[in-house]
Amino acid sequence: MPPPLDRIEDELRRAAASRRYPDVTRLAAEFGKAAEAKVQDLPQGDPRAAEVARKLDDLLSWALVMMKAARSDCAAELLRLNTATIYNHPIGERAPAVRLDA
Prior knowledge:
single chain; mainly alpha; 3 helices
């Protein structure tokens, strides 16, 4: 019997919120397999299959938004650090540049 979708969803949300991306990847795959198994166990045409698909789409969309927000936060932090280093060097020396496009 596959693990319950709700348990995997909770774990995935906690992993994404705490930026544990290897866990997010693993749990997203686990959630997809569990969702597929659940749908396969349903009779053909059962409306619960659409609910499982919506839940999968909602969860993965949310995880993507969380990762984009974390990436944006990291970029903003790098920009703050780059700005701070402008003032953190002896007069006459050029400040080291931080590339934000890497």
